[in-house]
């Protein structure tokens, strides 16, 4: 996987046409590029995956596969990269899309939730207060779940407004991300909510170790 990423990184332009003959789950992960700018950046950049037509289509299909037949009323994406996958998932499901924003961007009445992101920085997340009615079943989508702090804040916002992220004895909706790391926060989410991600089990340890 790392060799494929490194090889693609040397290409002067993104390869957006090649599609493998056998498209196994997660084949598109090799489209992502490793960090070359240092510790202040995420360790892996999925932008090229989103530029690849078949890669993006297969990624969204894999994220939604575990929720086939589940009752989903709305998809919510987390600021900012979760907007890409969330909007794509909403369009595929023919459902509405709700943007969960970083504080200060919404000019309407909001509900706010403080949280710490993957870098340990203290932030605040907001959602408009009129978008979620009691019992609304939400699929929460983000690009990545590393420490779980951002996703837990989004779950808190949805549930405070009466929305259902997952509930026992009901058809559950839940949480989807390209990768859900096996961190303490990532495990907390996976133990309590129906989750979907794109990383095959054989690659999970390498993603957990940022390799």
TrEMBL record:
<comment type="similarity">
    <text>Belongs to the purine/pyrimidine phosphoribosyltransferase family.</text>
</comment>
<dbReference type="GO" id="GO:0006166">
    <property type="term" value="P:purine ribonucleoside salvage"/>
</dbReference>
<keyword id="KW-0660">Purine salvage</keyword>
<keyword id="KW-0808">Transferase</keyword>
<dbReference type="InterPro" id="IPR000836">
    <property type="entry name" value="PRTase_dom"/>
</dbReference>
<keyword id="KW-0963">Cytoplasm</keyword>
<dbReference type="InterPro" id="IPR029057">
    <property type="entry name" value="PRTase-like"/>
</dbReference>
<protein>
    <recommendedName>
        <fullName>adenine phosphoribosyltransferase</fullName>
        <ecNumber>2.4.2.7</ecNumber>
    </recommendedName>
</protein>
<comment type="subunit">
    <text>Homodimer.</text>
</comment>
<dbReference type="InterPro" id="IPR050120">
    <property type="entry name" value="Adenine_PRTase"/>
</dbReference>
<dbReference type="GO" id="GO:0003999">
    <property type="term" value="F:adenine phosphoribosyltransferase activity"/>
</dbReference>
<dbReference type="Pfam" id="PF00156">
    <property type="entry name" value="Pribosyltran"/>
</dbReference>
<keyword id="KW-0328">Glycosyltransferase</keyword>
<feature type="domain" description="Phosphoribosyltransferase">
    <location>
        <begin position="69"/>
        <end position="162"/>
    </location>
</feature>
<dbReference type="GO" id="GO:0005737">
    <property type="term" value="C:cytoplasm"/>
</dbReference>
<comment type="pathway">
    <text>Purine metabolism; AMP biosynthesis via salvage pathway; AMP from adenine: step 1/1.</text>
</comment>
């Amino acid at each position: 996987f790392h060799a494929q990423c490194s090889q693609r990184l040397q290409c002067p332009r993104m390869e957006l046409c090649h599609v493998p003959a056998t498209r196994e789950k997660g084949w598109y992960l090799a489209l992502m590029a490793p960090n070359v700018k240092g510790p202040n950046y995420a360790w892996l950049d999925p932008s090229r995956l989103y530029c690849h037509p078949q890669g993006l289509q297969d990624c969204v299909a894999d994220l939604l596969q575990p929720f086939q037949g589940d009752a989903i009323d709305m998809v919510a994406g987390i600021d900012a990269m979760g907007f890409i996958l969330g909007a794509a998932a909403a369009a595929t499901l023919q459902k509405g899309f709700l943007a969960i924003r970083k504080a200060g961007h919404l000019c309407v009445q909001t509900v706010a939730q403080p949280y710490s992101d993957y870098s340990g920085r203290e932030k605040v997340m907001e959602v408009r207060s009129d978008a979620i009615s009691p019992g609304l079943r939400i699929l929460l989508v983000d690009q990545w779940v590393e420490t779980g702090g951002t996703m837990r804040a989004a779950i808190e916002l949805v549930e405070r407004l009466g929305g259902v992220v997952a509930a026992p004895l009901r058809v559950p909706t839940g949480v989807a991300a390209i990768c859900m790391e096996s961190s303490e926060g990532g495990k907390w989410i996976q133990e309590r909510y129906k989750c979907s991600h794109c990383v095959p089990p054989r690659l999970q340890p390498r993603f957990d170790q940022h390799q």
